[in-house]
Amino acid sequence: MVGLRGVLTDTEARMIFRQLFDSTSGTYSYLLASRHGGEALIIDPVLERVDRWLQLVRELDLRLVKAVDTHLHADHVTGLGELRDRTRCITVMGEHSRADVVSMRVAEGDRIEIEGLRLDVLYTPGHTDDSYSFLLADRVFTGDTLLIRGTGRTDFQNGDPRAQYDSIFNKLMKLPDETLVYPAHDYKGETVSTIGEDKFFNPRIKVGCGSQICLSRRGRHRGLEERRRTARALRAWGSSSSSTGISRDPLGSIDAGKSVQIPIQIA
């Protein structure tokens, strides 16, 4: 299992960590650096918040060297390209991503490193087939795979509930219980959870149906504005229906509200 360190180095304990929220898309982005005046990276930047991030980088006297997306986001336009153009930072995504904006692709077991910090790469598909999580000692950035008291939908962008089951139960839930969980989205005002909390309190990860695990595909239908954001995001990525698993009309209906029951023996 990659990255089961659980203990921060002295540098990691003193690191700069900022969480920024985009209220329009419900997206969390993260800034990490080991010290003032040092190198920094940003995870899941939103295009409309790029100016705020760059202002913060300047205020903290940082040098942005890497910008990372956990997966191809369909609910907002990524800030990777804008950050690359304005700072010449390296843009990073998983090797399964088909995004053209990426200059560095990582795989399970790789590390994303900046001065004084390293992120261990976990491939956690299910929400999408290009979903990755990034582990930094005492915390994990889970994208849309594991949310706070929730999980990402699996009914588009080549989503797969069985792959999501494997990602959640055989990778993320095997991290230490005290591991902090920082997702890419929240819609209820929560900012952080832990692996231990979500094991017990996450209603989307439930044991039931006899000896089966039930993972909900989608709890609600998407509203019109959410579907419009999806259309804008996919146009920005230059994605096609063949690469994302979405119909050619992103504003059209998408099957929702289903559950998938995965037979598994519970010890």
Summarize this structure briefly.
The protein is of the alpha+beta class and 267 residues long. The protein has helices at 10-13, 50-59, 80-87, 161-170, 195-201, 224-237, 241-244, and strands at 16-22, 27-33, 39-43, 63-68, 90-94, 104-106, 111-114, 117-123, 132-136, 139-143, 146-147, 150-151, 180-183, 193-194, 205-208, 212-216, 259-263. The longest helix has 14 residues, at 224-237.
What does this entry look like structurally?
The chain is α+β, with helices and mostly antiparallel strands and 267 residues long. It is built from 7 helices and 17 strands. The strands form 4 sheets. A 6-stranded mixed sheet has the order 1-2-3-4-5-6. It has a 6-stranded mixed sheet with strand order 7-8-9-10-13-14. Strand 11 and strand 12 (150-151) form a beta hairpin. The longest helix has 14 residues, at 224-237.
As laid out across the biggest beta sheet, the strand order is: 1-2-3-4-5-6
Compute the number of strand runs. 17
Rg, Å, rounded:
18 Å
> How many helices does DSSP assign?
7
Main sheet characteristics? 6 strands, mixed
Please tell me the total number of domains: 1
The percentage of residues in β strands lies in 25-35%
**Share of helix among residues?**
10-25%
Termini, distance in Å? Answer: 21 Å
Low confidence ranges = 207-214, 216-224, 239-267
CATH topology label: Metallo-beta-lactamase, Chain A
The helix/strand class is alpha+beta
CATH architecture: 4-Layer Sandwich
CATH homology-level superfamily: Ribonuclease Z/Hydroxyacylglutathione hydrolase-like
